[in-house]
Each structure stands twice: as structure tokens, then as C-alpha cells.
Amino acid sequence: MEETEDVEIIGAGPAGLIAGINFAKKGHEVKIWEEHEEIGKPVQCAGIISKEALESMVELKSRSKIILNEIYGAKIYSPQGIEFSVDGGDVKAYVVDRHMLDSSLGEQYVSEGGKLMLGEKAKPHKLEKGVIVGADGPNSIIARHFSFPDMPKVFGYQIEAEGKQIGRIIEKNHVKVFLSHALFPGFFGWVIPLNEEKARIGFAASRGTLLYRHMKSFLKKLNVEEKVLKNAMKSGGAIPLKTRSQTTKTINKKKICLVGDAAGQVKATTGGGIFFGTSCARLLGSDIGNYEGAWRKNFSSELLFHQAARRIMNSLPDKMIDRAFSLMKEHKVNKFLEKYGSMDFLIPTIKSLPKYFLS
Q1: Do 10 and 133 contact (CB within 8 A), yes or no?
Q2: 324 inside domain
Q3: pLDDT digits (tens, 9 = 90+) for 192-209
């Protein structure tokens, strides 16, 4: 039987909570520190998750109450407005209520015997337990305090707005994605529908971008008046573009691990971190001794592929992106993606290229 240890987790997001649930199930004494007074607030996430990712969260006892909308596909726009549409024909992803998602996981964690320290910011130098887990996001204080390698990031800014103006720019079951180095250097913009007249409108961009100014430019591009900013719910935060080269350490007999966004276990193509972060958290909580090797064996290749794809996208000038969109439409690449595409796994999709286009 595995020896039980005291575990202290910093951060009560999905990765921290799922790690905590699995640690508790193994008999460990677990405590999660969360600096905010309530789990899941403030929301710092676009809240879109693939159908497969949501189904993989076995720790979540009720999924229906966290789902706000179903997504069938995406409409992607080049810098000059060339539309490339992918429609899977059925549900491919969900827009979720992140507050409800995190709260539900928190309830499950407590039911397993875990302790929650809400409204308390952990002090790394005072953590003396056997296992310390940094699940505290891209700007992790645990990573910084214990001198883990840094990672590059972009910075996101999002509003949640509703009304007739918003209703005119959304399609209820399709996400819209906008590419433009001028507006979104280093990343992209998005419109994610919650219902017929409510959406999350946001983007991420490289360090140094004037986020508020670029948001106003984005709204202008969408033909949405700036005044929606006044009453909109605003959020933002960093998004890792690379996994850390090291996610575990042992210092003075303390095991220190990073998981989720704190470890950079995020798709660099889209910024989505729920699937890979929670999958790695499950591995951590199930077998801490093999954590680094296990998550890299299972997911490192895929995450590296996402990173390579992001570098390629960022290297293409806007004119080349426009040309690529024209070619993709000409060769009906959307049909290939509708048949073989995956929101989470790029490698199987790429491997299916010859089978599709040479058949």
C-alpha cells in the first residue's frame, strides 16, 4: 500500500481540485489554499471545453447544470475577413459556467474529506508538509518561490455582454475566431455565444499590448458600440504558451509539484487548459512518485505539437494567412476537419491527412 502523506495544494481551480480529490481518495491528508473567498470567482476563462474533455472529468458528478450552450463548430476569419467555416453537425464542445464547474468540483473534494482554506493566501516559506502542489495559475507563486523554469505567456482580456447588438454578431451554436497580427499580436480574438443575445468577447495578445485599446478596436471591427464596455463583466489573465521544462522538485524532503496552468499544461494553439490540466492533475493525485514521467509520456508530444503550431501561426504575416485561407477553402479542408478534427489532439488529425486527401 502506498504511504500516505500530508498534501498542501495552492489554487482551487479544476486542476487543484481534481488533484485534491484523487489525493484524498488515496488516503492522503489534503488541504487546498484558495486566496479568493469563493471557488470559481473571479472567472478568468473563456469557458469552452470539448465534449470529450467534459466527459473525461469523472470527478464531476453532475455535468448538465454547468452547461450554458452547445457548440457545433466554428467560423474562423482571416485578417481580411475571409471566412473558413467548420461545422461538425452535432455537439463538439460546450460553453460552461466556470463558477459552477469549480464549485461542483469543490463540493466533491470536500465530500472526499479534503479541507478548503478559502480567502487565505498561502505563504510558500511556511508550507512544511510532505507534498506541495502549485495549481495557482501561470503566475504561480509556488513556481516562483521554488525557482522553477519560467515560460512564455500571452495576456487575455474578455468581456461578457448581452443585448441586441451582441445578438447581431453571434450564431448560437458556433464560435467565431478572428486572426490579425495587428489586433491580436501573438494570438487571436474570439466571440463565444452563451445564448441568442449574450456572448463572451475577448482576445489574447503578447506582452506590451494595450489591452483596453485593442478591445475597443475589436468591438469596432465587430460593429459593436464601445458603450457595451460600461456594463460588461470584464476578466483577464495570462495564458502559457509553453510547458515548463521541469514540474517537480524535492527540496529538504519536501516534494514540490506544479500542475495545470502553473505547469504550462495548456494548448498553445487555443489557450485551453482544462482538458490537459485536469488529466495531468489526475495522474498527480493517483501516483505522485511517477507524476512527471507519466504526464510527459501521456501528453508531452501533443502539447509540443500545439506549441509548434502556435509558433508557425505567429510567424506567418497577415497576407500569407489570407492566402492560406483561400487555399483551404479551395481544397475543402473544412470537410477534412469535420471528419477527423479534434479540439484537443492535433497529432491524430495530422496523421489522417494522407488517408483523406489521397483516397
Answers
A1: yes
A2: no
A3: 999 999 999 999 999 888
